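Help needed: design a sequence for this.
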């Protein structure tokens, strides 16, 4: 092998490493945020990926419709597909004896992602970016997508609002909003899927 060829191979290797690491947020320490495929994004990385090729990326918010409507959502969002639904009219007791709103996981989660992917003319080989409030639900959704055959299911590790600051008791540490990225309160009916009937007992 000539020195010139070896030099070229080294250059290509470095370029490949750079491209691979271009969108590579650190692995989150919280277990709920971790995924088997390890595809993590900061909000800025997600924004850059979408901006670079918006027609080739599916961008989904998995918070509840109420969160999306009243807290706001990232600009450029393709769909709101809730990881779970919450019934704010009903309380249930937790195992620890505390009250919380009744909730249930979205039984059509994967089918709704499949439909959104198809509507955009994409396949399971294309990048899917998932966002929630702070990264837990998006991590669990990305894991479910991976198990369903999605090859590039990314999670935004700090979500839309970011992690809770223990000093200020506010979500002012990180996340899409705190990064100064574009977001809106504007109601966009096309983002939402009709809420299903709660399962019996929920």
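Sure. Designed sequence:
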């Amino acid at each position: 092998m000539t020195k010139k060829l070896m030099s070229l191979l080294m250059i290509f290797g470095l370029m490949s490493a750079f491209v691979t690491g271009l969108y590579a947020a650190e692995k989150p320490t919280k277990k709920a945020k971790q995924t088997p495929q390890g595809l993590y994004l900061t909000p800025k990385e997600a924004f850059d990926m979408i901006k670079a090729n918006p027609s080739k990326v599916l961008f989904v918010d998995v918070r509840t419709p109420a969160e999306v409507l009243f807290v706001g959502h990232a600009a450029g969002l393709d769909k709101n597909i809730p990881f779970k639904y919450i019934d704010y009219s009903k309380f249930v007791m937790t195992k620890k004896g505390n009250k919380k709103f009744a909730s249930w996981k979205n039984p059509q989660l994967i089918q709704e992602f499949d439909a959104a992917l198809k509507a955009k003319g994409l396949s399971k080989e294309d990048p899917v970016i998932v966002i929630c409030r702070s990264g837990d639900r998006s991590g669990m959704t990305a894991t479910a997508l991976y198990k369903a055959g999605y090859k590039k299911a990314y999670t935004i590790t700090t979500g839309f609002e970011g992690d809770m600051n223990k000093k200020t008791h506010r979500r002012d540490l990180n996340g899409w909003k705190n990064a100064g990225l574009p977001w809106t309160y504007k109601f966009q009916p096309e983002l939402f899927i009709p809420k299903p009937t709660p399962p019996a007992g929920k």
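The mean pLDDT is 88.
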